[in-house]
């Protein structure tokens, strides 16, 4: 887990959550300090809120004391460098950028008024993906260190950069603001199989799902509110040899023989998909959301 994220939840709330953990666990402050691997006096800095506790330490404390992790994952966290004014790297279109654009098409947004680029996912099941995949994409592709904020069960990876907004909107043709019925797969990506697979990977990692169809079968699903974009996704999958079907707001791959092909060709980066698929391979059952969360923590 990223070790430069800090809890930032308002006056009195950091102390309150630490006292709640202490009371429910029955531990004293010395024992809690040992779990956190800090000196006892640091605990009182945390309680006075003269120092913010590192998020990974708080999660570790929650695991060790059997505290409700869902409650911790809904806390607000921050990382430095909110407003960055340095020049960005402007990469040529490659698989890394194509995957990033796919992720943006899934759960990303550009807000023109404050030059913010962000990708928002679930803090419960996508935390690792957002921090270790999306966050690293921002750094590797554009040379920018992102900020991470968690709130109301979601984690957002964001950058404030006018240069990045211009690059994505002008060179990559990504829509600023409301994207409903305006999202599309760029033609240059559609014409290149490697770029297309990378794009579909980013899209699946953010707006896709691998779930149970029947007791011993699974289904790959892409979700979108934009009909034209869904049609593009369907045709893109068909061009790669998949038997894709469209229904409502989703494109599905039902053919059980093609599930292996999908995971080998698209190669999802989000561990929530890869763990579910691995369990399915071993047991022939796609785990439920609850079963996945349990497997991921272990």
Q: Which key terms come to mind for this protein?
A:
single chain, 298 residues, alpha+beta, 434 Repressor (Amino-terminal Domain), Endonuclease I-creI, 10 strands
How would you describe this structure to a colleague?
The structure is a single chain. 50% of the residues lie in helices and 16% in strands. The protein has 298 residues and is of the alpha+beta class. It has three domains: 6-69, lambda repressor-like DNA-binding domains (434 Repressor (Amino-terminal Domain), Orthogonal Bundle), CATH 1.10.260.40; 95-180, Roll (Endonuclease I-creI); 190-297, Endonuclease I-creI. It starts with 5 loop residues before the first strand and ends with a helix.
Topology:
Layout: E1 6-7, H1 13-25, H2 29-36, H3 40-48, H4 55-64, H5 69-73, E2 77-78, H6 95-107, E3 108-111, E4 116-122, H7 127-142, E5 147-151, E6 154-160, H8 162-171, H9 187-190, H10 193-207, E7 208-214, E8 217-223, H11 227-239, E9 244-247, E10 250-253, H12 257-266, H13 271-283, H14 289-297
Antiparallel strand pairs: 1-2, 3-4, 4-6, 5-6, 7-8, 8-10, 9-10
Short description:
The chain is built from 14 helices and 10 strands.
Q: How is the main sheet built?
A: 4 strands, antiparallel
What is the arithmetic mean of pLDDT? 88
Strand arrangement, major sheet: 3-4-6-5
Cα(first) to Cα(last) distance is 14 Å
Envelope shape: globular
CATH topology of the largest domain: Endonuclease I-creI
Order of helices and strands: EHHHHHEHEEHEEHHHEEHEEHHH
Please provide the count of β strands: 10
